[in-house]
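hiii, so i know i said id send this last week but things got crazy w the move. better late than never?? heres the sequnce for the chain we talked about at the cafe, plus the structure i predicted for it. fair warning i was half asleep when i ran it
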Amino acid sequence: GQLETIGIGYKYLDAYVDNIRRVTKEDIMRAAKTYFTEKNRTVGILIPVKPNGKGQ
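okay and structure toks below
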């Protein structure tokens, strides 16, 4: 009932695994090129903590 309530339909789960199996390497590469761009990236710099509790 929950899937129907949110507009997906009860047959969604029946096809879910097959749909995932149909995803190709090329599909993933295309999505990565679309969404993983320099414009929308976040860069973090991790500095290890020394045993005395201070960074480098």
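btw DSSP finds three helices and no strands in the chain. thought thatd interest u
miss u guys!!
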